[in-house]
Amino acid sequence: MLSRLSRLSRPKAIALCALPVVALLATAAFAPLPFSVAQPGMTANVLGSNKGAPVITITGATARETRGQLRMTTIEATGPDAHVGLADVVDGWFRTDQAVMPRDAVYPSGGNVKEIERHNEAEMKRSQDAATQAALGYLGKAGDDIKVTLKLSDVGGPSAGLLFSLGVIDKLNGDGSGGDLTGGRVIAGTGTIDAAGEVGPVGGVALKTQAAHRDGATVFLVPKAECTDAKSELPKGLRLIPVTTLKGAVNSLVALEKGRGSVPSC
């Protein structure tokens, strides 16, 4: 092949060499790629109702009437079986209202759509259980005496854990001195939580801040490890508060409400 090319004119040689490259690019343009394209999703006020049912139901203790909102945030991504091509990836890469993410970062690998749905439902259930334990543990209340039911339709995964815990605390204790934990504000956020009250990262925060701002939030609670991502496309007028623990999140909200003490920032 090399000897044949050496006898071709330069333009013909370049054209012949370019053919495999063109074929490769053409194949890449139409071949499915292992990515998902995500955008800001729905938000839900955990202190209110979702699809006609209260998100938080408490029995065994009197729940407070609350003002303000605590909005958990989501992203919407192309499905695990969706065809995402090169054009979709390039378009999403340069847009601020979309993000291109590895499919395995959005969906567990190796499963079909039904298996992934079951996985996400199980993750949500574990998150709800951990959120309840963390909230009751923070308040020093026994789970045997108080029952908390959390219900949020059509949302899976663990990323609402922090907001669930804060919602339970606001319903049972407010700011601890008769006021609301929200201070009457619309507060949004994201973050996993474990039973000990440790807050973990979730991904997609730059899109979630956009969803929060769209739905009226002025404050966004973000896992501290994701501050840089949250600031990358931060909507004007949305204040970031980094958190690492449930206790720290509560302390920050109380300081913000009362206008006293230190409120951390990214």
UniProtKB/TrEMBL annotation:
Keywords: Signal. GO terms for molecular function: ATP binding; ATP-dependent peptidase activity; serine-type endopeptidase activity. Transmembrane segments: none annotated. SUPFAM superfamilies: Ribosomal protein S5 domain 2-like. Residues 157-240 form the Lon proteolytic domain. PANTHER family: ATP DEPENDENT LON PROTEASE FAMILY MEMBER (PTHR10046). This is Lon proteolytic domain-containing protein.
